[in-house]
Write a structure and sequence with these properties.
The protein has 443 residues and is of the alpha+beta class. 52% of the residues lie in helices and 7% in strands. A hairpin with a 5-residue loop joins strand 3 and strand 4 (351-353). Helix 5 (86-103) runs antiparallel to helix 6, helix 11 crosses helix 12 and helix 12 (224-245) runs antiparallel to helix 13 (250-257). The radius of gyration is 24 Å and the shape is globular.
């Protein structure tokens, strides 16, 4: 049964066209980051970036280095689409993209994480065995089939993403549509649709539709009687997200994934009419079967476990943010606050309030005011800066935050010396004060 499910030979047309779509989209993402000024704002203008904790050594290249970096990634995307030096191109892109993801989180996006995972898949998939420069230059590479585990790996990954995204929305601030209203507030000046997006009935439609779409879309695409309707709904849903939330290539990448849900012969007839049909159906167990099962089992066990970890960490993830990332908790909360850092010279007893404008961009200041890992990392950076001057310091924080439009509440224990407090990777930080989310009043 398992062999039939994972190792049946099927037409590889979905994988070939997905490779082309994928390469084009990542090229547009990377070139677009240059043109729109995203690189300048996020990686060039800041004195330093807030990397993922443990990766502080990953910092942007100096000068115009990051522009060349993204140009190289975009060009690798073109090579992926063309199937030129495919293995080198996709592995190089995956490494470079992962490095960018880890070196900054001021512009954190769940979709950037998904792109890492899909790129990792594509490193192992035989996506260059047709309609590729590689297969033209080396006819021995050409092949009309792929194993069915390729399809099901993508489907299972998407099922995890969408299902956890749906479940995460089943909480009070989404169910009463309050967070949807907040998310729409800064869209009021959009041409034509801005005023409409402020209507209460629109918030209700978006809230309910968001839950149902995420929960049902994968089963609906898998079931043939509902597949075409689900695809049409997907087009509307992802175009709406693209226009309203402006989240880069993700809506279009999501649409590209749908090629794996249609019958391979349907995809061949649409995109590769000259390609020979491949009936498929043979079951052939490859020599690397145990490797596939072992690595795949570990990978998907981690993917199922990561979004659950916040349930094993004290307090509410909406307040603490502990366990939020890598959990498909998308567009669920709005955080804002104010913060003051006080540096105390342990030897002299002299204290100083830090002027954040000397260190941070506007975006970084918004993040540091409301997110505990940013706060701790900045305290550590200040500690190192003063250590270079020969000063041993303690750093204390006065911080208040508002979650989902609630009144400001004190967030960090002002008596804790963050400069000399270690980071806990897997447990709760007691210097984050207890949740105040019981206050239901929102702006």
């Amino acid at each position: 049964m398992l062999n039939r499910f994972l190792f049946t030979k099927i037409n590889n047309s979905p994988l070939l066209i997905f490779r082309i779509f994928f390469g084009i989209l990542v090229a547009l993402e990377c070139y677009g980051a240059i043109v729109t000024g995203w690189i300048r704002r996020t990686l060039v203008e800041p004195q330093f970036t807030f990397s993922f904790i443990g990766f502080e050594w990953l910092q942007p290249l100096p000068g115009n280095g990051m522009y060349f970096y993204f140009f190289i990634m975009g060009t690798l995307g073109v090579c992926i689409a063309l199937g030129y030096k495919y293995r080198f191109s996709i592995i190089s892109f995956t490494i470079l993209w992962t490095a960018v993801y880890l070196m900054q989180k001021s512009s954190y996006n769940n979709h950037y994480y998904l792109l890492i995972l899909i790129s990792l898949f594509m490193c192992f998939f035989p996506a260059h065995r047709g309609y590729a420069v590689d297969s033209r230059q080396n006819p021995l590479l050409k092949c009309d089939y792929m194993y069915s585990y390729v399809k099901w790996a993508i489907v299972l990954q998407l099922f995890i993403v969408y299902t956890y995204a749906s479940i995460a929305k089943l909480y009070g601030d989404w169910l009463d549509f309050g967070i949807v209203r907040i998310l729409m507030l800064d869209k009021a000046d959009y041409p034509v649709i801005g005023a409409l997006l402020q209507e209460a009935w629109v918030h209700k439609v978006v809230g309910v539709f968001g839950i149902l779409f995420d929960f049902l879309i994968i089963p609906a695409l898998l079931w043939k009687p509902t597949r075409k309707v689900a695809f049409i709904i997907s087009i509307f849903f992802h175009l709406f997200n693209s226009i309203v939330f402006q989240i880069g290539i993700f809506p279009y990448l999501s649409l590209a994934f749908t090629v794996f849900f249609f019958e391979p012969e349907v995809i061949r007839k649409i995109f590769f009419k000259k390609k020979e049909p491949y009936a498929g159906g043979e079951i052939q167990t490859p020599s690397y079967k145990n490797v596939i099962l072992g690595l795949g089992g570990v990978y998907f066990l981690i993917q199922f476990a990561l979004p659950l970890r916040h349930h094993f960490i004290k307090d509410n993830v909406l307040w603490t943010e502990e366990g939020h990332r890598l959990s498909w908790r998308m567009m669920l909360r709005s955080r804002a606050g104010n913060i003051e850092f006080t540096v105390l010279d342990i030897k002299t007893g002299v204290s100083k309030i830090i002027d954040l404008d000397e260190y941070l961009t506007k975006k970084q200041k918004r993040r540091i005011a409301a997110y505990p890992d940013f706060i701790w990392q900045f305290a550590q950076r200040l500690k190192k800066e003063y250590a270079k001057k020969g000063q041993e310091v303690s750093i204390f924080v006065n911080s208040k935050i508002s979650v989902n439009g609630r009144p400001l509440h004190t967030f960090i224990d002002s008596k804790v010396d963050l400069a000399n407090t270690p980071w806990q990777y897997f447990t709760h930080h007691e210097w984050i004060l207890p949740s105040r989310l019981e206050d239901k009043n929102r702006l």
